[in-house]
Design goal:
By secondary structure, the protein is an all-beta fold. The protein has strands at about 1-5, 45-55, 75-90, 95-100, 115, 140, 145-150, 150, 155-160, 165, 175, 195, 230-235, 235-240, 245, 250-260, 270, 275-280. It contains no helices and 18 strands. The strands form five sheets. It has a six-stranded antiparallel β-sheet with strand order 1-18-4-13-14-15, with no helix packed on it. The model is unreliable at about 10-20 (pLDDT under 50).
């Protein structure tokens, strides 16, 4: 993979049984004519983007960091007070733009620690390397040490128009939701949220059955260019959890909203990452 840049018929029910449809006649083809069609699209295939951080209530007011404002431990999922305004163009059929954290490769400081797996084992096939606590994705507990093994899960959704956070309107609103167990419809439906992955997320035994990765469970290790981390490709933006849920246009402006789970957050603690990465690529 070449990386190019980092940064509703109810009205008819009453008529059923009142009108008898005529017997259908057998179809007989009498003549066909077949023509060819072709068009050449100009320009060169490209994959590019630019981005800017914005406050939720304005498309012009800048921010310098992704944050959540005041939040209490145990409050569940909450949408960040920052949105990423993304201008993108993916006209290369082999290209895309991906989003991830890279906490395990971070340099590691007392302010922005590097992820440390507390149960790692030299044997890569040992389940210790595939437990839930082996996933470095999300926000890291900043306890004053240069390493951290406590994380808060994050998730993202990308929209082609701005949304009002926690407005109970399925068209104009957007609500925080557990991507696994949240509501299946409405402004806060879970299917619009995709778990944030880390550049070094290993295969994780999420269902605890002792094997990994199980097909169709999302237990796979991170791979560059994977659909689960791609926010846009030549088919448009990645609007849902399924790997095929992309919709156009493939060039334009979109808004990335982020959320984090504070179910396991420690009271009085600070969680950070300085590795939220947007990266364009070709394969």
């Amino acid at each position: 993979m070449k990386k190019t840049r980092v940064i509703v018929l109810a009205a008819l029910v009453c008529a059923v049984g009142l009108i008898t449809a005529p017997a259908s006649a057998a179809f007989t083809s009498l003549q066909t004519a077949v023509s060819s069609a072709v068009v050449s699209v100009g320009g060169s295939p490209t994959v590019s983007f630019s981005l800017a951080l914005r406050v939720l209530t304005s498309t012009t007011t800048p921010k310098t960091i992704i944050d959540w404002g005041a939040v209490n431990a145990g409050t569940g999922w909450k949408v960040s007070s920052t949105t990423i305004m993304l201008d993108y163009s993916v006209t290369n059929g082999a290209g895309g733009i991906q989003l991830y954290t890279n906490n395990k490769s971070a340099g590691g400081t007392t302010l922005y620690p590097r992820f440390f797996d507390p149960t790692t084992d030299p044997n890569p096939n040992d389940i210790a390397n595939h437990n839930l606590d082996s996933n470095p994705a999300g926000l890291l507990w900043s306890s004053g040490l240069a390493t951290s093994s406590r994380t808060l899960s994050m998730a993202w959704t990308i929209k082609t128009s701005t949304k009002v956070v926690e407005l109970s309107d399925p068209v104009n609103g957007l609500g925080a939701s557990d991507p696994t167990s949240g509501p299946i419809s409405g402004y806060n439906n879970r299917f619009q949220w995709v778990f944030m992955r880390d550049k070094q997320t290993p295969a994780i035994d999420f269902n605890g059955n002792g094997t990994w990765p199980d097909p169709g469970t999302g237990e796979d290790a991170f791979v560059d260019g994977e659909a689960g981390s791609t926010i846009a490709d030549s088919n448009g933006v990645h609007y849902g959890q399924a790997p095929t849920e992309f919709t156009g246009p493939n060039t334009g402006r979109a808004w990335i909203y982020l959320q984090a789970s504070f179910n396991t957050a420690l009271a009085g603690a600070t969680y950070r990452t300085n590795t939220v990465t947007v990266e364009s690529f070709t394969e």
